[in-house]
Design a protein that fits this description.
The complex is a heterodimer of chains A (about 240) and B (about 250). Chain A is an alpha/beta fold. Chain A is about 35% helix and about 25% strand. Chain A is globular, with a radius of gyration of 17 Å. In chain B, about 40% of the residues are buried. Classes of the chains: A alpha/beta (about 240), B mainly alpha (about 250).
Chain lengths: ~240, ~250
Amino acid sequence: MALIEAKNLSKSFGTIRAVSNVSLSVERGEVIGFLGPNGAGKSTTMKLIAGYLQPDQGSARIAGFDVSESPVEAKGRLGYSPEGAPAYGEMTVKEFLDFAATLRGLKDATTRVQETLALCRLSDVAGQSVDTLSKGYRMRVGFAQAVIHDPEVLILDEPTDGLDPNQKHEVRRILASMAERKAVIVSTHLLEEVEALCTRVILISRGEIRCDETPKSLLARFPGKRMDEIFRHLTT
Amino acid sequence: MKSSVTLRLNPMRAFRAILAREFLGYFRTPLAYVFLAVFNAFAVSLAFFVGSFYESGIANLDRFFIYHPWLWAFLAPAAGARLWAEERRQGTLELLLTWPVTVWQAALGKFIAAWLFLATALAMSLPMVLTVSWLGKPDLGTIACGYLGSLLCGGACLGIAAVCSALTRSQVIAFVTGFLACFILVIVGYGVLDNLLSGILPTQYVSNVARIGLWRNLEPFTLGILGIQPLTYFISVALAGLGLSTLMIERR
């Protein structure tokens, strides 16, 4: 069974059709690179799968649970970091993760918070309030709350946005270390990230899926072209 | 299928965690202390200087409670503005609602936390009770009843504030609209508006309009009367506000 299953998702805002008939399926061990120009509907699709937005049509399942019909079960198995990695700015990193762990009902909350702080290299700033952190740390806090319960499904909206090359590498390293046990969707603008990390590319433009295949087969379809050229070709 | 971390979803736990975070959240910013100071400074000085609390020579607190609708109309929206607007602005609403928590758990936790915060402000005025007890022999039952009425009146204003907060991502807009809505309920039933209305409406309508005013419903409490109608009024405004704001967040 696919851990992420979206069927014919559609969502309009007023007269703008943000997502149109999007279907996708992600198995355990897959890392999907979710690509597309700004405004293509990447974030909206992720919000629909995460259950933040209700689709006009279609449905989404996380680990077999329909996100609208059994939201608590579905969300319990999902780790989601929205664009910009929002967090409660006035809380310290540790308080914030404690809060996330409590709301998720983790039995071993204290150990999980410590483990997650270590995994995301946040231990040094655990006592600092999120508002005072630099961008790199803040993105890691967003990532940390998404993995604190070691979820089967991970959806990350631009987790490396605004990070320096070392920090990007670090996020990819952590992600790669846990990827084989999970189904992951990562949206990004960095095409080299896709080649380095992803087992499959889903490219979306104007709310519709333009391609869904491995990076290798995508590159093979356009011999001699680089990823960014293919991206431009498919989205303009 | 087995997740490596056990899921134990207890609805009360989520509610308690949100309540604690929200309540303590007030004290993370200077706003809380400003709020508590302003509430008590105004509550006491209005009673003494405007309400002639001392000169009246009567050992009760109705000169103190009479100004509470004004205070709540101003301060409940100040405390309630952040409820949802701040979550929207920070983007944390998207987190909260993609965690395994229902909107109702979150809404109830937030609302009760804000109400407890208002109760804290009110509790800090308890030395007023000592003052009247020292000056005379007040009826403590009546005073307790007045405090209950004031707390419920604050809850009703908070219900209105919650709706205004759910409408926007700006705390300022949430506060201003909340204040205006509460302000209308404060002036309804005051002489000035009554006179104005009796020019255009038949008398029985004027008195009906006055019934939805905050003071008209708080007054019986301050006299030690626990009436069903004012009790129902405050609780239903609070619950309607809580329910409506929650639905608005659910349907976002």
